[in-house]
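Slide 14.
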Amino acid sequence: MLGFKSSKSQDEMLASEAVKALDAKSENEIVAESLGKGSLSGRMIFIAAAWISLLLLIGGVALDRVLVNTVTKNFDDQLEYVLNAMIATAEIGPDGEVRMDRALGDQRFLEPNSGLYWQISGKGVPDFPSYSLWDRTLNPYLDKSDFDIHIRESGEFVETTLRIVEQSTLLPDSDVEWKFIVAESRSGLDAQIAELRTTLIISFLLLALGLIILAALQTLYGLWPLRYVRKALAEMRSGQKRRVTAELPVEVMPMVSELNALLDYNEKQAEEARRHAGNLAHALKTPLTVIMNSATSKSDDLDEIVVRESKTMRRQVDHHLARARAVGRRVHNQGRTKIWDSLESVERAVSRLYTHVRLDMTGDKDLEASVERQDLDEILGNLIENAAKYGGGSVFITIMDGEKFAEVEVEDDGNGIPENEREKIFDRGARLDTGKPGTGLGLAIVRDVVEIYGGTVALEESEDMGGLLVRLKLPKPIKAAK
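Slide 15: predicted structure.
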């Protein structure tokens, strides 16, 4: 006894130290654990980071296309403006050459190799270039009459790529088709695009980082109440608390309520096991005492006493074993059994034992009960066998679908049972007819097993057949939530 207390005290000390160790953990360590392999927080943050990155990548690419196209269009619009100004100021000189009545305003046209050029070309006449071309010329792209504006890129200058805008037109007092060309190096445009993209990438990276940090903080903060549940479980293991009592968010409270309900259920099961163990020990104590006293006194009828008391102990053991099996199957499984299938199986067995009895069945063939098949067979087997054994030769079984329960009525045409004795018949060892074989445990086992599953069994008088009516109510399976 002392050793047991010491062991229990040691377990409590270990559990208490575990709680203290949990309290002593820094928040950083808890966060690090929450982000580890298989972590719910880690999964949520990873999904958020992946989704944010994907969306920003798609958005960034789309925005890059829009901005690059906008900058390029602005670049081309400036070249077109110069081209239109050239055409507007161009005229034919006395010698048939083209000249402009006023100079273009951009100083780069006067600086050699400045990167901005213009040129006027005509078939059979010399080219009229800007000073910025110096000793080079631009190659017209248009070989046929086409008076639309054309934009293209050219690599005719080795050091740079040119962005070229050109248009063919006819000038007054001239039969020559003149080609007006304006070209500018892409280096300025490329520099603008590069700067734009750099700014865009940095901005989107910072935005992605900020959103991922926000998602991580939101996840950690949102799941933080689960750590209180963890702490409460450690406190329950140490014996400091019996239930989770902390005020938690409404999203977590259903889980906590189910956890507390599970703890209540386990305590109830443990108490029920202790009670039945005590009942069995108490039930066996008296027969063993009788046998020991008879053996000690060397009674002449010792053999009869041993047989009689052994039968009593066997009835008690059978009864408690049946309860234990039903409890075990109820704990580990949520049974779903078609009542009709079980009835057919029992009917075949009873018909072979009582060939003179007529068994009739009717009702919902698809109705299910939340009972394991083995237990349902035992319940129905006891009820139908009793009806066949003690009835007048006819048994009628009806299956009905109630609001909350599946109902089974077993009627016979026997003498029935007086109302004042119907409750006593459920006691262990009670017999309907001591002249027929049996242990008196059938209805007692039926009631215990039915109550374990949350059902009821009652005895009534059959109005149609005049004998006994057993009304059995069994819980229906719970429909899964959608």
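Speaker note: The radius of gyration is 49 Å.
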